[in-house]
């Protein structure tokens, strides 16, 4: 039996990235549920001090759905969602991002997703239907991982939804 080391490296690297994203998301949920403020440090050190850059606070106000801006069409070429949100953080190389997002009812289609994303539902629910698959409902307190290459539909039911998203993108989400 011959082993393709390139594929094995990719699977190990993907597992590491997904594991890191899951851990990061879990820490966000633990902080939000525990009522404490949660902080995330940037991934680069300041050369003069050897310490991480300024901490990014994920505040209760925005996580609770306030100060997220006005609702507007979200990627209208892919669906009819009306949403708003706040991007808390992007790494300097724009490969990693984190934010909170809220949507009114609607749906959108993903075709060959170009980034990995963790979603933690804070309020309402999301219905995810993989192409050719059955719908899966994710309610407040639950999360999911959309891996690079995923195709399907995200539906926000009548009560709407708010989530934390954490993405490893290879550029700004959606570009």
List the keywords.
disordered N terminus, 175 residues, 13 strands, 2 helices, Jelly Rolls, 9-stranded antiparallel beta sheet, alpha+beta, 42% strand
What's the short story on this structure?
The chain is α+β, with helices and mostly antiparallel strands and 175 residues long. Helices cover 19% and strands 42% of the residues.
Structure write-up:
With 175 residues, the protein is an alpha+beta fold. It has a single domain (5-168), classed as Jelly Rolls, CATH 2.60.120. It has 2 helices and 13 strands; from the N terminus they run H-E-E-E-E-H-E-E-E-E-E-E-E-E-E. It has helices at residues 5-33, 60-63; strands at 38-41, 45-46, 51-52, 55-58, 72-73, 82-90, 96-103, 106-110, 116-130, 135-139, 143-146, 152-156, 161-168. The strands form 3 sheets. Strands 5, 6, 7, 8, 9, 10, 11, 12 and 13 form a 9-stranded antiparallel sheet that branches. It has a two-stranded antiparallel sheet with strand order 1-4. The protein has a two-stranded antiparallel sheet with strand order 2-3. Strand 2 and strand 3 (51-52) form a beta hairpin. It is globular, with a radius of gyration of 17 Å.
């Amino acid at each position: 039996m011959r082993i393709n080391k390139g594929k094995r490296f990719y699977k190990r690297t993907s597992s590491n990235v997904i594991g890191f994203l899951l851990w990061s998301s879990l820490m966000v949920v633990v902080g939000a549920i525990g009522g404490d403020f949660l902080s995330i440090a940037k991934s680069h050190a300041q050369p003069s001090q050897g310490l991480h850059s300024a901490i990014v606070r994920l505040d209760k106000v925005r996580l609770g759905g306030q100060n997220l801006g006005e609702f507007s069409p979200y990627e209208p070429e892919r669906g009819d969602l009306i949403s708003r949100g706040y991007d808390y953080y992007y790494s300097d190389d724009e490969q990693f991002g984190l934010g909170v997002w809220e949507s009114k009812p609607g749906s959108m289609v993903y075709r060959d997703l170009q980034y990995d994303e963790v979603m933690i539902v804070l309020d309402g629910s999301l219905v995810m239907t993989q192409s050719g698959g059955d719908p899966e409902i994710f309610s407040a307190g639950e999360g999911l991982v959309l891996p690079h290459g995923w195709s399907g539909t995200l539906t926000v039911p009548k009560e709407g939804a708010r989530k934390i998203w954490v993405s490893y993108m290879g550029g700004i989400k959606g570009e």
